[in-house]
Amino acid sequence: MPEYLEFIFTFGAQSGPRDLRFSGFREQITRASPATAMPWLSRSGNQLQLCYNLKGVTLKTTNPSNTKIDEWSIRQAAVHHQFDLSKGTTVWITTKGNKDLQQRYKELTGTEGRPEDRDFTTTESSLRASLATHLMYARWATDGWRWYLRWLEAVIEQNSADAVIVPRGEGRGQQHYSPYDIQDLQYWEDKVHETVMVLEANHDVLGSLRRFYADLQAAGELKNCQNHVHWFDTRLNNVMDDFRMQISRARLLATIIKNRKSLISQHFQGQSAERSERLAQSMEREAIVMRIVTIVTLIYLPATFVSTSSSTKIRTMANLDTAHSRITLSKDGCK
Description:
By secondary structure, this protein is α+β, with helices and mostly antiparallel strands. Helices cover about 60% and strands about 15% of the residues.
């Protein structure tokens, strides 16, 4: 299928996850014709083709001293499947960044696996083995999400629990918040929304895969395979239920982050109001001190002024009397 190239283009050398928001399911049914039949390859030309991608999450590195900086990686897997409805021949093409799925497929079809999962003797048994392979991919996509969400919950609890449980008020030891706290919670909220989007994409892809085989069975394309399709439908529905549970869990976490971000924002505004109130009280005390100084000045300034003025005149008159006496004595002496 040419559409499979769309899923392959998301792979390659990259510094971070790319096209995480891209998911899809493509299907195609080809009828037998001289152009599509290849008898030498046991291909009748009457075949179904489908391709899709799923995303799993893996823990890359851990830090025992600070779980917040643990590194998780959301990884994609692109699957192409072709099944001959007449001959039962099967083709699988799987693209992934490592050999995880290859090892799982070897375990599925190896000697330790169930005999029905590696039985390709008839068209019906080949279909049963193909459905088991689809289930293997679906279960791989569910691995790790429970622990990833648990890690996100622990990080959010560590960063924002004090905003809820620590009492606030006068005389209490309070945690001071800054714009960084709101920015940090916004980062984690974006991570949780991304998780919700990926989980919903996986759920939708598996739903499309389930409907595809159910429609084939209803149309009579899968003869004598009703039990196999029913078994596949039941098992795949269990996987989808797990995804629905994880989606609800992630949405609840996103709501908790949103509420705590709003609460921290209120605490931050309250801190600003408290600082403004303390500044106003300080200015009020300074104003009272200035009034007292002004009153004291008004009381003592007139007396000080009078005292200063009076002392200056008396000294001047005394000087004048002394000078006059000296002049009089001088005159008497002349006489």
